[in-house]
Amino acid sequence: MFRRSLAVACVAATTLAAAAAVHADTLAGFLSRGRLSGQLRAYDFRRDYSTSSTVNTQAFSLAGLLDYRTAQFLDGFSLGASFYTANALGSRNSNPQRIDTTLMGPANAINALGQAFLQYGGHAVLVRLGDQLITTPWAGSSDSRVLPATYRAACGTYSPVAGLRLTALRILRFKGRTADGFFQDNNYYPATWNGDANYGGIGNLPARARAAGGTLAFGAAYGRSGLKASAWYYRFYGFAHMLYGQVDDTPPLHSPFEPFAGVQVVREWGRLNRFAETGTRFFGQPGTAVDNLTLGAIAGVTAYGASLSVAYDQLRREGPGALGAGVLISPYTAGYATDPLYTTSMIRGMVELGPGHAWKLRATEAALDKRLRLSASYAVYRTDFQGLDSEIYFGVIYRSRGWVKGLTLRNRLGISHGPANPGRGRFIYNRVMVTYAF
Q: How far apart (Å, rounded) are the C-alpha atoms in residues 387 and 420?
């Protein structure tokens, strides 16, 4: 029923576009009142391992992201589209094992229509139908690679009062960061599923697992005077139900030193009824029932452009026989390390490591009138099946101004130690990112 409604919406979009052309003086005039923006990106990723049995990998990509939005018509409607292209420019190693496929998959190029949607905005309502970027805690763009993830979905928000936003979301298909099309899958499907040759996820499901049914989500977010609170319900069809809540507060003390604190909770339950016959395992642990609880907290202080914080998360199973002994199922962030848990680092977090607990110390500094931002963190993960892992992170971002406004230079360095790495050794991941927005 929903798919039929979405198809009707697409037909309506075409009709509305034609009506808009008639309403405008000319079609060219209508389009010229739209807005074109975009980004140019040049990324170089390198992985180095301490064990000789695992080869080091590297990948380079030059990418362009072009976004077009029409002028509004019929009192609030508009159309939008985004074209994404990325190319390795012949820089890939002749040995496929030496290519970092997480940047853009094994292919030399990706060309994709990442967004194509009809939107209505007005009267505190925003509704978008079609292929689009989504920003929610457990389903988002995960934009730490050369191309973002996008979704074929219907999304609506309503802001009845200042600071409050209500969201309803229905995802039908997913285009991962290394894919050139939309598929009925997520990051748990193997690379060969549904012909998605560019897939770069973690592939925990057997190859014969059937298609996912997408996701339904409802959320509420409130922010005012340093207080930020959100509550979400997700139904990952065929996987799990999730309740997620987070509250962060920075009391307005009108002092150079501003303390902040936050808490978060994730409760997940359900049954992998579609995949029970496949013998799915996480961390070598079988099961079909998803049953886990995550509790987290953070506390810190900001002063004179710097901040220091310490965070803690605990993931545990809530019942016997839980899949992966309590694994946290996150179909759109698993393997991406882009979930909202306080202790998630650049390389991985509790979603990737499984049940246990973690803590993280983080420091940041803003300089040069906030154009330069430095960050460093140290995280320790003690999990039931991986043992003791740690990750050191260093990051630097420089945002230019003046005649090169829009240029951003960024370097991210992660150093991981522990049994989750090949050979249970050291893993160094360095990412150089150059972006120009126009």
A: 8
Averaged over 181-202, what is the pLDDT? 79
Find residue 378's DSSP bridge partners. Answer: 361, 392
Count of other CB atoms within 10 angstroms of residue 367: 12
The string of pLDDT tens digits covering residues 302-312 is 999 999 999 99
When computed from its CA atoms, the radius of gyration of the chain, rounded to whole angstroms, is 22
Specify the pTM. 0.91
Angle at 50 between CA 44 and CA 53, to 5 degrees: 100
DSSP 324: G
* Cα–Cα dist 86/435, whole Å: 13
Q: What are phi and psi of 160, to 5 degrees?
A: -70, -30
The Cβ-side half-sphere exposure at 262, using a 13 Å CA radius, reads: 27
Alpha-carbon distance of 180 to 120, in angstroms, equals 27
Q: Which residue in the block uniquely carries the two structure tokens 């997700």? A: 234
CA 192/CA 182 separation, integer angstroms: 14
Of 168, 59, 172, residue with least CA distance to 107: 59
3-state secondary structure of 103: coil
Identify the pLDDT of residue 200.
Answer: 64
- Taking residues 250-278, report their average pLDDT: 86
- The pLDDT tens digits for 332-366 are 999 999 999 999 999 999 999 999 999 999 999 99
Widest distance between CA atoms in the chain: 67
Q: Token pair of 310, please? A: 């310490």
Q: Please determine, looking at this structure, whether the domain spanning 2-437 carries the CATH number 3.30.1490.20.
A: no
Q: Which pLDDT belongs to residue 212?
A: 79
